[in-house]
Every structure is written in structure tokens, then in C-alpha cells.
Design a protein that fits this description.
It is a single chain. This protein has about 500 residues and is of the alpha/beta class. It is built from 18 helices and 22 strands. It has helices spanning about 20-25, 35-40, 60-70, 95-105, 130-140, 150-160, 185-200, 210-215, 220-230, 250-260, 280-290, 300-305, 330-335, 340-350, 365-375, 390-400, 435-445, 465-480; strands at about 1-5, 10-15, 25-30, 45-50, 55, 75-80, 110, 115, 120-125, 145-150, 170, 180-185, 235-240, 265-270, 295, 310-320, 355-360, 385, 405-410, 425-430, 455-460, 485-490. The strands form five sheets. Strands 11-12-10-13-14-9-15 form a seven-stranded parallel sheet, sandwiched between helices. It has a seven-stranded parallel sheet with strand order 18-19-17-20-21-16-22. Strands 5-2-1-6 form a four-stranded mixed sheet, with no helix packed on it. Helix 10 (about 250-260) links the parallel strand 13 and strand 14 (about 265-270). Helix 4 packs across helix 5 (about 130-140), helix 7 (about 185-200) crosses helix 9 (about 220-230) and helix 7 (about 185-200) crosses helix 10. The mean pLDDT is about 90.
Length: about 500
């Protein structure tokens, strides 16, 4: 017999050591394990286990129960979640039919005859994830954290919530608003500040009373303590761009720490436009933070329903160049970044296709080079990268929206979170094989706008060397799998 204690952040199994199936049910191979020194030297079997000493993320409870039922393991469930009864309030948010279905499914989700308000909401870009979150917030009316990963997305989220009458603001105002929007980095920074003053290395509280703080404590000390206390009063968490949780192991550790700061948040949601595309480990990492996918709305579904623009993909086949180096990263530098034939075709495409146009690069040097080549052709385009100020980014975005700017070169900072429905053409200059990143890039142009019913996606099929050709084949298959018309052009 085993006991399974369910808490809001983690579950704990006692007595599970008697059942070897449980010890390995959350064990899987780590991506790329075969290339690591530890594996090659025989010091690691390449496997990672998300269950440690009988403890695992609560979002993976259903996955663990598959093993419990498969092997008929006798068990007792002890539900120790802190879950309050909520009353559904009227919401001013006007939802589309599929959005209403998602909200209903999420807010009344059940698991094992118990209320289970947690999971991943996967809706393609332009499908209204923010509106779904806003409606859930208005209906529940409980203290909420909305986690983002960039400062500009924090400002954008707060602005998006205002029209719905939602009292939202930054982390510094927590406790004085319904919704606190904060970056994961800011949350972790305040947690470090708290630990520095109020916890020793083992996590035990230091002897510093409120009276001492009032008399001698620094303002920052008092604010760190206040934020820490208010985080325990949070009932609901949204993770925006939730796929980032699973981008790499360091992200998972950071998000796990952040989510543990809100132990009483019984409502946990992940928002993403990206499907579960990766290996089992990364899917488990995402699922562990919130729960399994509860809703999935694709680009094709939104296009067919008339909520997104139709996409047409033109792929220009590049000639074979036997002289290109075959090893990475030199093949990328010579085959993509400094490839004269390819870059000339990018400039030609910018001149040919109707704009506004986004030219999307992955390397800063590529953006600088294309900016120079376009200038020679008579076009002065801004290049936005991670070094660009928020003022610069906003100016370019507003100019694209107003039509006073015909295009821009952008790095990966515009892969997600940017809303510019006026975009009519996207040039995938940076290549790459990531399905997640390429779907995000496509999403920059799918939104509907006045006078726009379609978006042109311009890609390149790099015929050599083998690795770039393989990446091109992956992208081509992705566009075809999305149901888009793909034209191969010379």
C-alpha cells in the first residue's frame, strides 16, 4: 500500500520504494545524451528522472497514476491541496465560441472526482490567449500572478487587461491589486533578496522581527518580506509562453523555484501557442509545472473559422554549393549569414512582395549585413535586436502598424509576443529547424487586419551542405503539415 499526498506544487509518495515501477515511471532519456562526455565515458546512462525520493511535480499526477493502475498498486490518495471554493462572477470579456468552451473546460476540469483547475491552454497565435486568461480572471476574482519572461511583455499584458476592468500592475504593487504581472526574472530577484536577509543557507528563518524591521530595516528589506508574504496569498497562476518552461533544464529549475513561492495557488495554467512538439522529457517538464493540455486550437482551425489570415508559402530553392563547409557552425555562417546569392534573393523578395514585411534573422551579424545590402538597394530599414531599447522597439512597431514603415529586420526578440496584424509578408532569413520557433515566426503575420486576407511566408530551401538541407526539409514539412499551399520556386 502506498500513500499519495497531493499538494499544490508537488506530490509525495510514501511506501513507493516497494514498487520499482514507480521509481522509473517518470524516467526517460535526456535529449542529446549520446553526445555528452558523461555518457561516452560510461558514467551516465543518459536518463533523467523527474521523481526524486518519492516526490514529483503535481502536474504529472495523471502520468504517475497510469503506472499505479497498470500494475494495480494499492494506494490511498490524501489530498492536501489548499483549494478554496470560488464563486463564478459575471465577466465583461466577449469571447468567441471556442474560447468559451476552453474557459468552461478549464474552470470545471475534474480529475478522479475532484476539482482540478490546472493544465495547459494551447491556442495558436491570434487565437486570443490573453482574452481567455482575462475571462478566467474576471470569473474567479481571486489573487492572481501572471508570469511573463520579458519586461516589454509585462507592460503589454497590463495594458491588455485594463480594457476588461481588471486591476493589474507590477510585482511592487502586489497585495494592492487583483492581478500581479511580473517577469520570472523579477520574481527570482526578489526571492534572492528575501533569502539574503531572512533565511540562512538551509532555508531556516532568521530572527528578524517585524518590530525590528519597522525601526531599523531598510525599505528594500521590508518590501522583500512583504512580497514574500503576499505570494503565499496567491490563488491562481498563469504562465505566459509556457513552452519556455521546457526549453531547457535550467528553465525548469527556475520555474519550479518560482512556482514554489506560491504554495497556495491551487489554480495553475500554462498559456502557449506551441504544441507539445518535443521529446518526452520536455513534454513532462511543461506538464509538471501546471498539468496536461486541456485545450488545443491550431492555426488551421483558426484560419478555417475565419479568425486568422490564410498563409501562402513560397520557398526559393538555393543552388548547390559544394564548397560550403559541412561542419556546424561554419556551414551556418557561410551557407546562411554570408551567402551572397541567398542574401541577394532576400533583398529581391523584400522589393517584390507587398509589405509591411518582417525579415527575421537568428544571428546579429546577419541582420547587420542584410541592413547594409538593403541600404545599397535604396531601402533604409531598422534592425531590432536584444540591444534595442524599448523606445526603439515601440517606435518601429507603431510605424509598421501605421504604414509609415514598409518593413523591419528583427532578431529572435520578435519571435513571440508582438502584435502587429498589418504584417503582410514574413521572410524567414535565419533558417533553422525548430518547429516551435518557426511557428512563432509565422504567427507574427497571421492576424487579420483591414485590407488584409492573407500573409506571404518566404522561406529558402538550402540545397547544401547536408545539415542545412535537412533543416530546410524539416521546415518544408512543417508548412505542409500546417495545411498551407507551398510553392517551390527557383
Amino acid at each position: 500500500m502506498i500513500d499519495i499526498e497531493i499538494h499544490n506544487v508537488n506530490c509525495v509518495i510514501t511506501g513507493g520504494d516497494k514498487y520499482p515501477q514507480l521509481r522509473t515511471c517518470l524516467e526517460t532519456l535526456s535529449p542529446g545524451y549520446q553526445y555528452t562526455y558523461l555518457f561516452k565515458s560510461g558514467r551516465w546512462n543518459g536518463k533523467v528522472n523527474l521523481m526524486a525520493k518519492g516526490q514529483f511535480p503535481t502536474g504529472l499526477l495523471s502520468a504517475v497514476f497510469q503506472t499505479v493502475h497498470e500494475f494495480n498498486i494499492p494506494h490511498v490518495i490524501i489530498d492536501k491541496r489548499v483549494a478554496k471554493q470560488i464563486h463564478i462572477h459575471p465577466s465583461p470579456v466577449q469571447l468567441r465560441p471556442y474560447q468559451e468552451e476552453i474557459v468552461q473546460k478549464c474552470m470545471f476540469n475534474m480529475w478522479s472526482d475532484t476539482w482540478w483547475p490546472r493544465g495547459v491552454i494551447q491556442v495558436a497565435t491570434g487565437g486570443g490567449k490573453t482574452e481567455i486568461a482575462a475571462d478566467m480572471i474576471c470569473k474567479a476574482q481571486v489573487p492572481t500572478i501572471f508570469l511573463v519572461h520579458r519586461q516589454d511583455l509585462e507592460t503589454q499584458a497590463i495594458e491588455r487587461f485594463v480594457p476588461f476592468g481588471i486591476d493589474a500592475g507590477p510585482l511592487a504593487n502586489i497585495g494592492h491589486q487583483l492581478v500581479t504581472v511580473t517577469t520570472i526574472q523579477s520574481l527570482m530577484s526578489w526571492n534572492m533578496e528575501f533569502q539574503k536577509h531572512y533565511e540562512n543557507a538551509e532555508g531556516a528563518k532568521l530572527e528578524r522581527s517585524d518590530e525590528w524591521l519597522a525601526r531599523k530595516g531598510k525599505k528594500q528589506d521590508r518590501q522583500a518580506l512583504f512580497i514574500k508574504e503576499k505570494l503565499t496569498e496567491i490563488d491562481q497562476v498563469f504562465i505566459d509562453e509556457a513552452h519556455l518552461v521546457a526549453a531547457k533544464a535550467e528553465n525548469m529549475n527556475m520555474f519550479s523555484t518560482a512556482l514554489s513561492l506560491m504554495p497556495n495557488a491551487y489554480m495553475r495554467w500554462g498559456l502557449t501557442a506551441t504544441p507539445f512538439l518535443r521529446d518526452k522529457l520536455h513534454n513532462w517538464m511543461l506538464e509538471g509545472a501546471t498539468g496536461p493540455a486541456l485545450a488545443q486550437i491550431t492555426n488551421r482551425e483558426l484560419i478555417d473559422m475565419g479568425y486568422l489570415s490564410e498563409a501562402f508559402v513560397d520557398i526559393f530553392v538555393m543552388p548547390k554549393e559544394p564548397s560550403l563547409p559541412a561542419d556546424w557552425p561554419r556551414c551556418y555562417d557561410y551557407g546562411i549569414v554570408t551567402n551572397k546569392t541567398r542574401n541577394e534573393r532576400i533583398v529581391d523578395c523584400y522589393k517584390t512582395y507587398p509589405g509591411p514585411t518582417l525579415i527575421m534573422v537568428s544571428k546579429l551579424g546577419h541582420g547587420v549585413l542584410l541592413q547594409s545590402e538593403l541600404k545599397k538597394a535604396g531601402f533604409s530599414l531598422p534592425f531590432l535586436s536584444g540591444t534595442s531599447s524599448q523606445t526603439e522597439r515601440l517606435q518601429v512597431l507603431n510605424s509598421l502598424k501605421s504604414g509609415t514603415l514598409s518593413g523591419a529586420i528583427v532578431s529572435t526578440i520578435w519571435d513571440e509576443g508582438i502584435d502587429c496584424p498589418q504584417i503582410k509578408a514574413i521572410i524567414i532569413a535565419g533558417a533553422g529547424k525548430s518547429e516551435i520557433k518557426n511557428l512563432q515566426r509565422l504567427g507574427r503575420g497571421l492576424r487579420l487586419a483591414a485590407g488584409k486576407s492573407e500573409v506571404k511566408l518566404i522561406d529558402f530551401f538550402d540545397s547544401s551542405p547536408a545539415i542545412l538541407k535537412k533543416h530546410s526539409e524539416i521546415r518544408k514539412k512543417l508548412w505542409q503539415d500546417q495545411g498551407f499551399i507551398v510553392n517551390l520556386l527557383k
